[in-house]
Amino acid sequence: MTFMSIMNSFPLYILVIAGLLFVFALCLVTLKQARQRALELGLSKEEIMGVIKSSALFSIVPSLSVVVGLFSLQAVLGVPWSWYRLSVIGSVSYELIAADMAAIGAGYDSLAALVEVNDPNVAGAVMLAMSLGIIGGVVGCLLLGKSIQTGMASYRAKSGAWGALVMSCFVMALMAVFVPARSIFTGTIATLTLITSALITMAHRWIIKKYKVKWLSNFVMADALILGMVSAVFWNYLIG
After folding, report:
1. What is the pLDDT of residues 160-205, one digit of tens each?
2. Ranges of each domain in the chain
3. With contact defined as beta carbons under 8 Å apart, do 89 and 53 qualify?
4. Is the overall model pTM greater than 0.85, yes or no?
C-alpha cells in the first residue's frame, strides 16, 4: 500500500461522504430555523424564497475557484480528502502549507517529495496535521473573534490614518503567512508563476475599476488559479 492508494482508498471515500452528509444535514436544519425566524419577523414567503434563490445563484460563481483548487489539490492529496477539506472548512493555500509542514516534519524536503516516494506511513500524520491546524482558527474565532473585531474597529476609529495603516500591515502579514518565502524561491518556475498570477489579479482589478464591471470580481481567484497553472506549464516548457 502506498501514500496515494491510502489517500484514494474506498474506506476514505465512505468516511468523507458520511462527514459531508452530516454537514449537509446541519445546513438543512439551520436553513429551516432561519426560515422560521424570518417568518416570525414578518417576512413573506416570497421574500424569503427570493433571498434563497439569489444567495444560491451568487454562491455558484465564487465556488469555481474552489473547484479549480480541488483539481490542483487532488494531484498530491488524492480525491476524497481534498474534496472533504475544501467542502467543509479550509483553503488550497492552507491545506498545502499544513500538508507540506507534516511532510517536512517526517523528514522529506516537501510534500512533493513525499508524494514521489509514496510513503504510506506519513498519510495519517498529513491528514491529522491538516485537521488539527484548522481547528485552532475556528476555536479562536469563537472565543476571541468578537473582541478582536470590536477592538480593531475601535482602534481604527480613534487612530484615524494610523489605524488604517495598522490594519493594512495586518493584512500584509496574513498574505506573508500564506505566501512563505521558501515557496517563492524554490525555483525560477515557481517565482515566475507567482508573478504571473499576481499580474493577472492586478489586471482584473484594473478592468473592474476602469470599466465598472463588478461581476468580474467573482472570477478573479478562479482566473488567477487557472491562468497561473497554465503559465506554470508554459514557463516549464520555455525554461524548464
Report:
1. 777 778 777 877 777 776 665 555 656 788 888 888 988 999 999 9
2. 3-178, 180-240
3. no
4. no
